[in-house]
């Protein structure tokens, strides 16, 4: 595996971390999903994107509450309509060099059955991915650029980036084969989606 590790401002001190991405020579191998089994069980989040390892510590409590509220409204709607499943902190494996843990995902019943493996991870793209921003330039770059590209390349239909500090949500939808910013919703707006028939939620409820 390469020694290139992309860390965020929330990365804790540990022997495999540095304050910035370390360049990886051509001859070195990339990090793979199997390498995650060797990581310590210390509460950090380990993700691999394009063969680079991202190490992030436990986020702000408000971040976690916001994740929980997104999951709750989607789970309630899904159970009522029986159209899909919402998951929080689920593992998505797109390939050996792309293994991530988005904050919240939603997928149809058909996708759920097709993608889940024996370990409880999902091998492929859900219809909807939600990431709640953590503070720091590196964290925002990861969610707004690195993960946007990853989810776009692998077929995610909608990507919501939520900021609990500003109380707004950026909605990306697939257009001409890529995810593009469709709108930005603010605290007084209502959240809907063409993926979720008759789903409706006040933005203010998500950021209480």
TrEMBL record:
Gene3D superfamilies xref list: tt1808, chain A
A Pfam family matched in the record: Uma2
Putative restriction endonuclease domain segment(s): 35-201
Region: Disordered, residue numbers: 1-20
Biased segments, Polar residues type: 1-14
InterPro entries associated with the record: Nuclease_put_TT1808, Restrct_endonuc-II-like, Uma2
Alphabetical list of SUPFAM superfamilies matching this protein: Restriction endonuclease-like
Identification of the protein by name: Putative restriction endonuclease domain-containing protein
Phylogenetic lineage: Bacteria, Bacillati, Cyanobacteriota, Cyanophyceae, Pseudanabaenales
């Amino acid at each position: 595996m390469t020694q290139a590790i992309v860390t965020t401002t929330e990365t804790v001190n540990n022997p495999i971390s540095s304050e910035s991405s370390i360049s990886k020579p051509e001859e070195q191998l990339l990090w793979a999903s199997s390498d995650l089994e060797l990581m310590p069980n210390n509460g950090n989040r380990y993700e691999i994107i394009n063969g680079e390892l991202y190490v992030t510590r436990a986020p702000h409590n408000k971040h976690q509450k916001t994740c929980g509220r997104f999951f709750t409204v989607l789970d309630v709607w899904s159970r009522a309509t029986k159209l899909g499943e919402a998951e929080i902190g689920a593992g998505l494996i797109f390939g050996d060099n792309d293994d991530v843990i988005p904050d919240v995902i939603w997928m149809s019943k058909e996708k759920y059955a097709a993608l889940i493996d024996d370990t409880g991870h999902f091998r492929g793209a859900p219809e909807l991915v939600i990431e709640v921003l953590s503070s720091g330039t590196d964290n925002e770059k990861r969610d707004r650029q690195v993960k946007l590209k990853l989810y776009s390349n692998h077929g995610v239909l909608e990507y919501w980036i939520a900021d609990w500090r500003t109380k707004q949500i950026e909605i990306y939808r697939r257009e001409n084969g890529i995810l593009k910013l469709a709108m930005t919703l603010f605290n007084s707006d209502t959240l809907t989606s063409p993926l979720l028939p008759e789903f409706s939620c006040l933005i203010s409820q998500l950021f209480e």
